[in-house]
What does this fold into?
Amino acid sequence: MKQFARCIVSAPLFERLIIGLILVNGVILGMETSPDLVAQFGDFFHLANHFILGVFILEAALKMMAVAPQVSRYFKDGWNIFDFSVIVFSLIPATGEFAMIARLARLLRVVRLISTIPELRLIVSTLVRSIPSMIHVMTLMGVIFYIYAITGFQLFHEHDPTHWRSLGISLLTLFRVVTLEDWTDVMYKAMELHPFAWMYFVSFVVLGTFVVVNLFIAVVINNLDEAKAERLRELEAPVTQEEILKDLRETQKALKRLEGRLERVPS
It folds into this structure.
């Protein structure tokens, strides 16, 4: 039974089935936002959601069975914990005070698409690995924002109180500038008072947008390369004793078939 469960969960067809059901679940969630479709196909949507949840429960049970009796191995994988949590939250009744939680849990099933596709798992893992390094970059960016916010307040708060009347509003204005969204309007307003105010804005755009953003990209790419290298090392992991025994048994069967054929060959 354990070998049977392992064969099912590792089969490419089973993986494609789960991905297909996740996509169907996402389409159904989108269709449920239409009152007309809900009125016409509400019962079908309800049955489809229960069916998809049942398949997800069966998938989790098969994965646990594949590693039985050491079920704890299933929960050592963070993605399995995420999938199991989605199932648990999906079992919450969609009525009463828990209705909103149940709806959000159904939406989390779409996020399961990340856990089923290895490439997406690699990207998410890379982003998680990048968080510690990003903290240092964000600290640098915070210092730059703070210095420029105080400078902007001191220079422009009397002339343009809409954008510079306080430290908080100055920070929001700088966030608008760093996103390059209509930041020239703020600059031209400041240049009415100081003709050389463009130097302040251009220097901040260069530091905040080009330098810091590229630092973020460099951190992510560096961690992506490390994650790929780790994945290659996992694929090159030494063969287990169980795998060697399996190959030996298959080789023995092949040799027996060859012996049988040789015996049938006329001398």
User: Anything to note?
Assistant: DSSP finds eleven helices and no strands in the chain. The two ends are 45 Å apart (CA to CA). The mean pLDDT is 81.
